Amino acid sequence: MKRLARPVRIALFAAVVALCLTGQTRRYHYGPRDKGFYLDQATLDFVSPGLVITINSAQISSAGAITVTYSLADPNGLPLDATGATTPGVISLAYVASYIPNGQEQYVAYTTSSVTGAVLGTITRPDFELGSPATQVAPGQYTYTFQAVAPAGFDPTVTTTVAVDGNRDLTPFNLPISYAGTTFNFVPNGGVVTVTRDVIRTASCNTCHDQLAFHGGYANGMEMCVLCHQPQNADPVTGNSLDLKVMAHAIHMGSQLPSVVGTATTPGVPYQIAGYMGSLTDFSTVIDPANPQRCGVCHSQTTGAAQATAFLTEPTRAACGACHNNVNFATGANHPGGFQTDDTQCADCHIPQGETPFDASILGAHVVPGDTPAAYPLNPDTLISSVVVNITGVTNTNAGQNPTVAFTLNDINGNPLALSALSALQFTMAGPTTDYGYTSFGSDVTTPGYVGEDGTQGTCDGSGNCTYTFMHAIPAGATGSYAIGAEAVRQENVLPNTNAAQTVETGSPNPVVYFSVDGSAVAPRRTVVGESNCNQCHVDLVLHGNRRNNPQYCVMCHNPSDTDFSEIPAGVTPQTINMAVMVHRIHDGVNVVPAGGSPYIIYGYGGSINNFSGILYPAMSTAGDAPYLQNCSLCHTNGSEQNLPVGLNAVVDPQGWINPIQPTSSACSGCHVSKAESSHFLANTNSLGESCTVCHAAGAEFAVDAVHAQ
Predict the structure, then answer these.
(1) Which pLDDT score is estimated for 502?
(2) What φ, ψ does residue 460 adopt, rounded to 5°?
C-alpha cells in the first residue's frame, strides 16, 4: 500500500482532530432547508455535505498560458479531495476565462468552442472547459492550466476573470449533489482591477429565482453568467442572441414579445433557445410575475451593483430592442425617433426620468399605471390619487346582531374621498376564524361561507369618517371570532387633456379586522402566507381587477367549501378554489398533469377560462432546475408549512381523487396530485380524522421541512 506524503498525512490528521473537536457544532452550518440538518451525527461528521470553492490566484504568462489556483473545502473549511479518494464525494469541475477589452464594458471569452446550427451555421462562442485534470499542490488546493490560451499580443492591462464551478457527488451516501462556484478578477500585469461588469447582482434575481443556477449547476450567479452571455454568444440553431442583456429581456417578456404575439396579418413566432444536445426551450409562454415593465426589479438600486444605473444612463438598441422586438432601428419602423444606425443618440430622447409618467424617459415609458404614485412622488398634480380604506372599528358584534363598520376613506395623500368617488366598495364578513367555509349568513346568500355587501351604501361626513351597517346578521348561536375585510376600487383619469391621457383603475389595500361574537378572547385567523413573501416575486400582487391583495382577505372567499360553480358553463364539473389547493396547484402548474393530476382550470368572472397547467414557478434548485417547489418558506411565513393540521374543515374538491378531502391532505394534494398519493391520504384517514402528524409533524421522521430539504 502506497504511503502518503508527510504533508498529506499531517493535513489528514489535522482534519480528523478537527472533526472530533467540532462534531457537536457542525450541524449548525446547515439550516432546515439542508439535508445535512437532519443527518445523524456520525454521518454528518464523516460526510460534511456541501462544497466551498475559493480561488486563491490566477495569472496569464507571457506566452498566454492561463492558470488558476483554487481550494476545495467542506462548509467547515476542511480540505476536500476532488477525486473522492480520501474525502467523501467525487468533485467535478468546470472552468471559464474571459476579459473586458480596453474601452469596452462587456466580456470576451478565452474559453470557446465551435457549435453548428441551421440558421447561423458553424460559429465560435463562449463555453466551459470540462474534464481536464488539475494538479493538486496541497491538501484541497489545486492548480488548473486552461486549454485555451490568450492569443499573441493579448492585452495584459485589462480586467480578466476566471470562474471555477463544481459539484460534489454525495449520492452514494443518499445525499444530494452539492454545488458551488466562484469568480476571481485580476489584471495579468499585476495592476489593480478598476473595470468590472457589475450591472445586476444575483441578489436581485434571487428575489424570485431563490438560488440562480444554470447548466446543471455549473453556472452560479450573475458574476459567472456575464462571462459567457455577452455579444460574442449566439444560438446557431435559432439565430437568437445569447447576449445577456438581449436574452434576459426577451425571456422575461416571453408571451408579451411582439414577435410572439404577432399581428392581425402575421402569426406569432415562438421565442426559443437551443440548449444542451440541441434541446429546444420555448419561452413563449413566460409571464413575468413582477411585470416586465418594472425594470427596477432586476435593475435594483439597493444591491450595491457598481453599474446599477446603467439601464437609465446607457440605453442601447440591443437592450431595448430585446423587449420591443417589432422595432426596426435600421429603417425606423415602429420607432417614433426614426432610424438609428448606432446607439449614440438613444439617450437624447430616452433620459432617465421625465416630469410626467408615460413619457419617452426610461422610467416614464415603463410605468405600470397603478405604480404612478410611487414612480412620480415629486409631481402631485399628476398622481393617481388611489384609495385607502381603513377599518377603525366594528360595533354590534354579538351573535344575531348586524355589525356596523366604522371606516375612513382617503386618497393616497390623506385627503378625504366621497363614496361617490369609488367604482366599488365591498365589505366581506366570514367566520369563525378557526376555519372559514361552512357558515351560512342567510338563505339569500349564495356565496359559500361568507357574505359580501355594497359599502357604497354607507354614510360619510366631510372628513372621510364613514359607517356601514351590514344587512345580514352574524348567525344566531355563532361562537368564537369573526372577520370583516374591505376592498375598494376607483377609475381615475391620468394626465387629462394630454397625448398620454388614460383611465386607470386603482385599488385599496385590503384591511381585515377580527372581533369576538361571544365575549371570548379575539382570535385572528391563522397566518399562513405573508403578503410581503408574495411580493418578493410579484412585487405588487393584485387580483380581481386590482381589488384584492391581502392573503388574509383572500382566504375569506377562497375557503374549503368554495368552487368556481357560479361561473362554469353547463356540463362542467366545478373546480375547488380553496386557497391551500389553488395556490399550490397554480405554482406547480407544469408538473400537475405529468404527475398524474387533471389540468387545473378555473372559470373566472364572466366565464373566462384560466388554465394554469403551463405555469412555470421561477424558483430554481441548486442544479438550475425550475420549477423548484421545495423551499416552502418562499411563500409560507413563520414555519406555517410545518404546523399540522393546516385547517379544520373538509375541502370540497369535485375534480379531485377524493371529495370532500380532509384539510391537511387537501393542502398536500395541491402538489402531490397523483392517484397513488391520494390513496396514501385516504389510507391514513379514518372516522377519527387524519393521522398526518404521526409521520409529518415537526420533528417526526418524515417532517414536512425534512422531506422538502435539499
Answers:
(1) 82
(2) -135, 150
The DSSP bridge partners found for residue 409 are: 389
CATH number of 50-194: 2.60.40
Amino acid at 665: S
C-alpha 274/C-alpha 276 separation (Å) is 7
Q: Is the Cα dihedral 408, 411, 417, 420 positive or negative?
A: negative
CB 454 within 8 A of CB 420: no
Whether 163 contacts 274, CB under 8 Å = no
Q: Which CATH architecture has domain 384-558?
A: Sandwich (2.60)
Mean pLDDT for the stretch of residues 117-145: 95
Contact 551, 530 (CB under 8 A): yes
Collapsing DSSP to helix, strand or coil, 363 comes out as helix
Burial of 196 (0-12, 13-18, 19+ CB in 10 A): middle
Of residues 574 and 545, more confidently modeled? 574
Largest interatomic CA distance in the chain: 94
Assess whether the previous peptide bond of 660 is cis (omega < 30° from 0). Answer: yes
pLDDT tens for 202-235 read 999 999 999 999 998 889 999 999 999 999 999 9
User: Residues 8-37: what's their mean pLDDT?
Assistant: 58
Phi/psi at 129 (nearest 5 deg)? -105, 130
Regarding predicted confidence, which is higher, 335 or 1?
Answer: 335
Q: What is the rounded distance in angstroms from the CA atom of residue 701 to the CA atom of residue 337? A: 65
Task: Return the H-helix or E-strand segment holding 57.
Answer: strand 52-60
Distance CA 654, CA 660 (A): 8
Distances (CA, A) of 432 to 336, 648, 673: 58, 11, 29
Instruction: Let me know if 674 is exposed, middle or buried by CB neighbors in 10 A (0-12, 13-18, 19+).
Output: middle
What does the DSSP 8-state code read for residue 29?
A: G
Whether 2 shows a pLDDT value over 50: the answer reads no
Cell 369609488, residue?
422
Length of the chain, in residues: 710
Domains 50-194 and 384-558 share a fold: yes
Amino acid in position 575: Q
DSSP 158-189: S-EEEEEEEEEE-GGGT-PPEEEEEEEEE-TT
Question: What are the residue ranges spanned by the domains of the chain?
Answer: 50-194, 198-335, 384-558, 560-710
**Crossing angle for the helix pair 202-209 and 531-538, to the nearest 10 degrees:** 120
Q: Contact 635/531 with Cβ under 8 angstroms?
A: no
CA 261 to chain centre: 24
Residues 6+ apart with CB under 8 A from 654: 563, 573, 574, 575, 576
The set of long-range contacts for 697-702, using a CB threshold of 8 Å and a minimum separation of 24, is 697/642, 697/644, 698/639, 698/642, 698/643
Residue 481: how many CB atoms within 10 A of its CB? 21
With vertex at residue 215, the alpha carbon angle to CA 140 and CA 135, rounded to the nearest 5 degrees, is: 25
User: CA angle, 176 as apex, 584 and 670 as ends, to 5°?
Assistant: 10
CA atoms of 179 and 461, how far apart (whole Å): 63
C-alpha grid cell, residue 102: 480596453
Q: Which residue has the higher pLDDT, 201 or 500?
A: 201
d(CA 456, CA 424): 7
